[in-house]
Structures are given as C-alpha cells and as structure tokens.
Amino acid sequence: MTNYFKCFITPIPGVSQPDNDPSGVGIDHPHEWDLSALLIEILPSTHSIRSSWELRRAMPLLTPLLLLLPFLFLISPALTTFSSTTVSWYTTPANNFTTTLPLGNGRLGISVWGTATENITLNEDSIWSGPFQQRTNPASYGALWPVRFLLANGSISEAGDLTLDDMVGIPDEPQSYSALGALKVGLGHAEDGIGGYMRWLDLETGVSGVEYTYRGVGYKREYVASYPDGVVAMRFSSNSSRGLDVVASLERDLWVVENTASVVEDGGRLLLRANASAGADPIQFTAGVRVVSDGHLATNGSAVLVRGASTVDLFFDTETSYRYATQQQWEAELNTKLDAAVTAGYPTIKSNAIADYSSLFNRVSLDLGSSSAGTLPTDVRLVNYRTSPNDPELATLMFNFGRYSLITSSRASSSSSALPANLQGLWNEDYDPAWGGRFTIDINLEMNYWPAEVTNLADDTFPPFIDLLDRVQPHGVSVAEEMYHCTNGGYVLHHNTDLWGDAAPVDNGSTWTMWPMGGAWLSANLMEHYRFTQDRTVLRTRIWPLLQSAARFYTCYLFPFNGHYSTGPSLSPEAAFIVPADMTTAGTEAGIDIAPTMDSSLLHELFQSVLTTCAILSLNTSTDCTTAAHYLAHLPPPQIGPAGRILEWRLNYEEADPGHRHMSPIFGLFPGSQFAPLVNSTLATAAKAFLDWRIAHGSGSTGWSRTWTMNLYARLFDGDQVWNHTQIYLQRFPSPNLWNTDSGPATVFQIDGNFGFVSGIAEMLLQSYSVVHLLPAVPGAVPRGAVRGLVARGNFVVDVQWEGGVLGQASITARSGGWLEVRVQDGREFVVDGERYTGGFETEVGGVYTVALVDS
Q1: Pick from 735, 767, 799: which residue ends a domain?
Q2: Nearest 10 degrees: Cα torsion 346, 347, 348, 351
Q3: Where are the beta strands (DSSP E) in 175-230?
C-alpha cells in the first residue's frame, strides 16, 4: 500500500513527514475497517443495516455475497449490458472535450473525462466575461434614412458601407460565456495499468459513471447533477476496503483571487474565488467543493488528500455576482447548498436527482426499430454508421440525448432569473469560446427550444427563454429609441445577445450584423408555448407584454416601399447576393437590402400572433390589435421566382452561395406555417423547390442546418427525405459523445443541432399546425415503431404505434379539453373510439380518445 501511495503523492510543504510514511501526507494507515460502513456504501440492499447488532444478524445471509464482492466488482464492466437507446457508453477515457460526458442541473454543468487522474470541466451558466455595456452607436439614426435612400436607388454597396460605418455597436461585441475551471481528482493510477475500463452516461437516470480495475482492485466513479439540491455530487469508491487514496483540487489558470483547501470537522473543503475576466467590473464567483469520506483527510493548502478510504464523496457548487449583490450573499448561498448536501449525503442527493430528472425524461419514449449494431460502444456505432447506416437505435439514442441535453441545460428557477441554453448549452472549456458562446438569435436560440413543447418539457425548460426576453426587453426599448427614434415602447433585438439582454447590433459583418428581426423570431417561440400549453395566465402575464412590445417596434420601424411596409436596412441571415449590373457596385457581394423574404414571414407570424392573442384575451378593440391587423394586411407578399422557387430577397438576385447553410427564406414552411402544404399548396411547392435547390448545391453543411432540413422535409410530408437527412446527419456531424458539431466531429461543438434533431424526428411522427396530424411523414425505412407522450398544439398528449408503414393505433389525451381535429397520414379514413371520423369535435378535460384505421 505504501509503494502504491507513493507513486502519486509527493511530499507536501508544511506537513510533517514521519519516518515510516514516505508519502509525505503525515497520516497513518487505518488500523481497523468499519465493515458495516463498507457494506452500507457498497451494497445498496444493506442501506437499512444501521447497527453492528443488525449486521451480525444479517451476516449469515451476507457472507456468501461478501466473499463474491471483489470478484463481482472486477468482472462487472465486462458483463455490463447497456441499453442501446438510453445509454451512451465507451471503453476508453475522453481524449478531448467532445468525447467527455456532460451532466447538468440547468445552472451547473460538468464534463467528465474519465481519465486516470479524473478531470472534470466545470461550468456555471452566469460566468460571463463582464458587465452590461451600453453599446448603441450615436450616429445610427443619422444614417438610417440615408441608408434607406441609397438602397431604394440601387446604391447597394454604398448603403452597406454606411450601415457598417455608423450603425453597428460600439464596442461591436457583447459579453461572452466563459469556463469556470476544473476539478482534478488524482487516484495514483497509471493509464497503462488500467483494465476492464467502461464509462457511460445513462440518459434515463441522468447518472454517469466510470468503472475499471487497477492492480487487481476494482474502482468506480459516479456523477450526478441535482436540480432539487442545486449541487453536483460525485462518489469515488473501491472494492478494496480502505484501499482508496485521492487528491482533489480546483484548478483555474486565469484571474484567480484565491484558491485554498482545508480540512474541518465535517470533511475537506476546496474554495476557489475568481473573476471571469481581467476587464473592469467582471463577474465574480466562488466555487466550492466539500469532500466527505471514511478515510483520513489532510491538506497542503491547495488540495484535499484522502487516504485509506472506502468511498470519497464530493459535492460541488458555484455562485456568482450575477445573481447576488455581494460576496457575502453568494457565499452564504454556496455554503447553504453545500452544507445541506453534506448533511443529506450522496445516496439522498443521487435519489433526489434521479427522481426529478427521470420524471421529465420518461414523459416520452420512442421506438424506431432495432438491430445488432446497437450492442456496440457508442463511438464505434458512430464510426460504423458512416459506411453502414443500419442502426435505427442510433437515431433513437440521439433523440433521447437531445431531450437529456435540454433538461440538463435549461431549467426554471423560482428563486432567481434563469438563463436559457446558449450556443453550447451549458458545457464549455474555453474562456473565450467560439462565437462567444452567446445566445445567437438568427436560428440558434430558437432551435434550442424547438423540442421543448412537442416532447413535453416546456413547463420545466422553457421559462428561462422567457426570463431572458424579460431582460432583453427594457434594453431593446432603449436601443429602439436611440437607434431608430421609436418611442412607443417597442423593443428591438438584433442577431445576438448575452446574459444581460444586450440588444444593439453585434460584430461588423455585412451579412449578419444589421438584422433587426430578433424580437420577431423569438416571439414565434413565445406564441408556440401558448399554443401547446393553453396556459392563459402565462399568455396574459408573460407572453403578451413581450409580443406587444415587439410588434410596437415594427409598427414604428417599418417604412413604405413599393406599396408595402418594408424592413431596411436588413438582410437574410448570413447570406449574400451578387449586386446586379444596374446597381452599384455591380458584381460585388452584398447582404444588406430592403425587405428580405424572411423579414416579411417573421412579421406575418408576429402580427398574426398578436391578433390571435387579442382574440383570446378579449383585446380586439385595443390600438395594438387594430394596428397589427393593418400592418399584417400591407406586408410584402412572398415572391416566387421564374425557376419556381421562393425568392430570398425582394428582387431575383443571383445568390453568392446557392448552397448556403441558412434556410431563412422558407421560415414560413418551418418553424412557421405560412407556407405549409395544408395552408397554401402553391407556396409549399415553391418552398420545396427552394429547399431542393439549396440541398443540391451543398446546403446542410453544418449540423444545425442539416437538422433544420429534417424539419423542413417533415413539414412537406416527405418521410423518406427526413430519414435520408437523418442518416446524413448521423454520418457526418455528431462528436463521439453525441454533441452536435459545426461541420464535423473534429470541429467546434454547437448544441443547437442536437435540439433540431429531436424536433425533426418528432415532426416526422406528429404535427399539429391546424389539425392533430398522426404520422405525417413516416419513412419507408422505418416500417414499424411507436412513440409515447408527444404533445400537440391544443395541449393534447399523443401516443402512436405503426406497423407496415401505416397507423396501428393512437391515443390522444386532452389535457385542456377543447376542439380536436385529426388527420391520419395522407388523409386515410379512421375511427375515433370506434366511430367513423367525420370532422372535429369537442373534448373533455382528461378525456382519452383512441384512433385506428377503418377496417378494410
């Protein structure tokens, strides 16, 4: 034992070193083993044994199992069989960030590497680079009308130059999301001595683990993030009684104020105080870890050292100046949570976490078929899928991982304003991540929440989305006043924001910065929340004020052009066109123009949402409602070009990139409904022509773009194309840990595609834009399957089973009652509760209605 311990503990400055203790820790090995404690820790079935007398009574039954324990521990990794649809698992440790296993409770995130010396990347959602910035350019309004004049008269390049000179923010970037640091846990294990290695993430329970053997001893690590307790908990254990030695420390290499370790009566403590950046008025935070063990604890001032333990439990939390005014306040909160976690103990924290998480995850289940390919480790399955996509359970696993990721990165908070999932959800190892890890508004944040409603997670995961808009709105009102001289209480948001709700234009790019449509797109998500939940209280108190303010901005900002109320300067997100010969500067690329198609589609959606809300809340005679109706009637209509495609801009410009990744011009197909086949078949046909054209020229080049494509083809009822793009996505984009990537496993992690994937699979099986549409796009490659627990607009819960490519049976539960119309596949005849369906009907609250095809 002494030689083993020596291999990873060096002499500690300031701690006496007995002659018989070459490790330098200054503590002796334990002389006795507490057998009852060991059994309580290792055998869940013996947790009720609380006294030595009870233990003695139980020993005749326990002795055979006790004798087998070391052998069971050693062989368990090899015998483990994991679910192919709810567990991602691996036989090697992580070798980079996108192979780690992520856990979170909505606010705290960890990424587990599973290496010999455990490395746990730490995150807290409010650790961003700095304070709110007032960035509005004072020259903006002076440039607004000259820019419009230039655009209207064909001086496209000059208008773009003036826009970027005088209308972008100063400075041009808001704050950025930032990493916290890492928790390192050394066990003295060399990688070349490890055998039987297995690590996993259980998507049904939210628990992650690592198991392996080292020099004949079995070791296990377990991790769980508890939303009810507000902490992350970890347990390190060994099947060798008192055979576990651990060194734990918090690490961060920038802007550290204090990093200390101590040992007190109830265990060890790690404390890290730091600033999120070197700038003025940075966000400050304190991270704490409590170490609880049956071993001997010591410290060298920067690490807690545990020797001769059976188990070591660690509890982690971080609190920041974002949510608390003083260090005293946030550290009081930190200590309250950690003290409570230590008192409760790891088994209780784990139980709380599983009960909370699984109550959300288990609302939905999916079966898309099975194959023998699902028995392999997840990273192997991904590699195999690239050449042999015969693993339907991989799609189900990805669907479940997306739901897991939303639950763990976005949770409502009753005590403080919550933050939504950002570009990386919650998980980030960089101080300055790609695109600042912000909330990007021209597709990404909206896509993050596409699956929230349909997979029955809205009540628990969507409130942070509304919380963010509550922070944006007052800043957006100020920007609207200063940039556009709109003083009617309307708010504007451009293509990006941060945790403070920064609303000014971001960066200085001709194809993304000057896009004032963020409030309109986010409003679409808000209205969808009501359509699914039917919660009039939330509609009245939270959604309506934001819809009202967003619409008011546009009724000020829009200007008459060619007989319509038009936007400008604006753009089609991140896309460029070639300036035509009769404009300047001919032949160059430009992005800024008047009335791109997406703008009109977004405004159609917004003003329609205002009118719908007015009717529901009996506000029809208010000025907001009558004004919205007027503007809705005078928006530029969608245009179809000579090739039969929806046009991206007001004119039939040549596209600089025909295969561009954004599908902005057909927002009206998905997530909007203006171009839906059952709404307007002409526009649906033109939208399909646009989609086919873009895909033929290489679109879908990013993970999120490919999953948007899945959703678009689902809206066109083309199940075979949905499955085609599902397979392409799985072949090209997921990292080994299933995270979505920008353009392939070796590129940057970006979580939006994970959520777009979930939405795409759900849209394939259920749509509800005007009717509850069962199996609208079931692929031929998935002839049988089932889904349980999806939610349709109107607050109907839907279970569907199909066989041979056709509906077997469905049940629809009316959680709010109300009118129900149903469609099956391509319009097949069916019965509801045995009666032939002839049209919609009123449902009762809690009523369950069975749907089946008419017997042939």
Answers
A1: 767
A2: 120
A3: 181-186, 194-202, 207-214, 217-226
Closest CA relative to residue 786, chosen from 767, 803, 770: 803
Under a CB-based contact definition with an 8 Å cutoff, are residues 291 and 267 in contact? yes
Q: Give the pLDDT means over successive 10-residue stretches in the chain (856 positions).
A: 30 34 33 31 31 40 44 46 97 98 99 99 99 98 99 99 99 98 98 97 99 97 99 98 96 98 97 97 98 98 98 99 98 99 99 99 98 97 98 99 99 89 99 98 99 99 98 99 99 99 98 99 99 99 99 99 99 99 99 99 99 97 97 99 99 98 99 97 99 99 99 99 99 99 97 99 98 99 99 99 98 99 99 98 99 90
Q: What is the rounded distance in angstroms from the CA atom of residue 540 to the CA atom of residue 613?
A: 9
- Reference 474, options 498, 496, 502; nearest CA is 502
Residues 737, 797, single domain; the answer is: no
In 338-443, the DSSP E strands lie at 365-367, 439-440
Nearest to 210 by CA among 120, 119, 114, 121: 114
The answer to whether residue 501 sits within a structural domain is yes
Specify the pTM: 0.91
809: its two tokens = 């049976």
> Is the distance from CB of 260 to CB of 252 less than 8 angstroms?
no
Tokens of 167: 């209308």
One domain for residues 732 and 796: no
Measure Cα distances from 788 to 202, 366, 722, 762, 785 in Å. 20, 7, 20, 11, 10
Residues 847 and 807 in one domain: yes
Secondary structure string (H, E, C) spanning 477-539: HHHHHHHHCCCCCCCCCCCEECCCCCCCCCCCCCCCCCCCCHHHHHHHHHHHHHHHHCCHHHH
Structural domain span for residue 806:
785-853
pLDDT, residue 413, reads: 92
Distance of CA 594 to the CA centre of its chain: 33
Report the alpha-carbon distance of residue 272 to residue 184 in Å, rounded: 13
C-alpha distances (whole Å) from 475 to each of 132, 465, 496, 498, 499 are: 10, 16, 13, 12, 12
Cα–Cα distance for residue pair 262/26, rounded to 1 Å = 15
Token reading at 373: 């390919």
Query: Which amino acid appears at position 532 of this protein?
Result: F
CB 780 within 8 A of CB 718: no
Distance, CA of 171 to CA of 137 (rounded, Å)? 9
Strands 806-814 and 848-853, sheet pairing: antiparallel
At 318 the three-state DSSP class reads strand
Domain match, 711 and 821 both: no
Q: Could you tell me the CA-to-CA distances from 459 to 384, 757, 766, 835 in Å, in that order? A: 38, 21, 20, 34
Q: Specify whether the CB–CB gap between 496 and 514 falls below 8 A.
A: no
Residue 85, domain member (yes or no): no
Question: Does residue 798 share a domain with residue 689?
Answer: no
- DSSP characters over 650-675: SS-PEES-TT-S--GGGTTTTT--TT
Domain count, the chain: 3
Contact assessment for residue 808 and residue 802, using Cβ atoms and an 8 Å cutoff: yes
**pLDDT for the residue numbered 415:** 73
- The answer to whether residue 259 sits within a structural domain is no
Which pLDDT value is given to residue 740?
99
**Is the domain of 588 the same as that of 698?**
yes
With beta carbons less than 8 A apart as the criterion, state whether 498 and 125 touch. no
581 and 618 belong to one structural domain? yes
Using alpha carbons, select from 290, 330, 328, 282 the residue that is nearest to residue 178: 282
3-class SS at 579?
coil
Question: Alpha-carbon torsion 795, 799, 804, 808, what sign?
Answer: negative
The CA–CA distances, whole Å, from 795 to 46, 239, 357, 774 equal 44, 50, 22, 15
Q: Under a CB-based contact definition with an 8 Å cutoff, are residues 606 and 554 in contact?
A: yes
577 located within any domain: yes
